[in-house]
């Protein structure tokens, strides 16, 4: 795992929301939307907090039981899929989460009982591509919205 590699959400073309543990992400350029839960949601949250991938990996190892090499490969595969779908991009900016807060989180995680590791999966949905790509606000002439350009 690349220790210094960080990612950020590819905004403004990507929007996301977490609802009851499920992360829903929409790529506004492509019109695709995605869903992931459990470890995928935890990885996403780590990226949102500006954590390097090595820190995300360590926190997952502390929380879940499993073969470290399998967990690392699963996280790398999940990140590669997110990057391939243009949901995240490499980020050269500094971490947003202080080391003190990260250490406190790690201490809390170590006192918890470990759960079995679940491979993060990215569910992709394309059934709304045309609707999301329509974007009537930008597809108008002098007529104005909500009249769609012919």
Summarize the structure.
The protein is of the alpha+beta class. Helix content is 38%, strand content 20%.
Task: Tell me what you see in this structure.
- The protein is an alpha+beta fold and 150 residues long.
- Helices cover 38% and strands 20% of the residues.
- It contains five helices and eight strands; from the N terminus they run E-E-E-E-H-H-E-H-E-H-E-E-H.
- The chain has helices spanning 38-48, 53-63, 68-84, 99-110, 129-134, and strands spanning 7-9, 14-19, 22-27, 32-36, 64-65, 88-90, 115-116, 123-125.
- It has a four-stranded antiparallel sheet with strand order 2-3-4-8.
- Strand 3 (22-27) and strand 4 form a beta hairpin.
- Helix 1 packs antiparallel against helix 2.
- The longest helix has 17 residues, at 68-84.
- The chain starts with 6 loop residues before the first strand and ends in a 16-residue tail after the last helix.
Attribute tags:
38% helix; alpha+beta; four-stranded antiparallel β-sheet; 150 residues; two-stranded antiparallel ribbon
How are the SSEs ordered, and which strands pair?
Layout: E1 7-9, E2 14-19, E3 22-27, E4 32-36, H1 38-48, H2 53-63, E5 64-65, H3 68-84, E6 88-90, H4 99-110, E7 115-116, E8 123-125, H5 129-134
Parallel strand pairs: 5-7
Antiparallel strand pairs: 1-6, 2-3, 3-4, 4-8
Radius of gyration: 18 Å
* Alpha carbon gap, first and last residue: 50 Å
Uncertain stretches: 95-102
**Fraction of residues in β-strands:** 15-25%
Order of helices and strands: EEEEHHEHEHEEH
Mean pLDDT equals 80
Biggest beta sheet summary: 4 strands, antiparallel
Apparent shape: globular
Strand order of the largest sheet: 2-3-4-8
Number of strands: 8
> What structural class results from the helix and strand content?
alpha+beta
Tally of alpha and pi helices: 5
What is the helical fraction, as a range of percent? 25-40%
């Amino acid at each position: 795992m690349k220790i210094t590699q960080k990612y950020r959400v590819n905004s403004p073309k990507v929007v996301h929301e977490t609802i009851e543990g499920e992360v829903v992400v929409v790529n506004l350029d492509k019109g695709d939307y995605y869903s992931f839960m459990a470890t995928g949601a935890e990885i996403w949250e780590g990226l949102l907090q500006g954590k390097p991938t090595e820190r995300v990996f360590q926190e997952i190892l502390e929380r879940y039981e499993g073969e470290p090499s399998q967990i690392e490969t699963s996280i790398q595969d999940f990140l590669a899929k997110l990057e391939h779908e243009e949901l995240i991009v490499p980020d050269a900016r500094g971490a947003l989460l202080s080391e003190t807060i990260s250490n406190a989180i790690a201490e809390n995680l170590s006192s918890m009982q470990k759960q079995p590791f679940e491979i993060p999966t990215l569910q992709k949905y394309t059934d709304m591509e045309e609707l999301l790509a329509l974007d009537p606000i930008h597809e108008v002439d002098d007529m104005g919205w909500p009249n769609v350009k012919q």
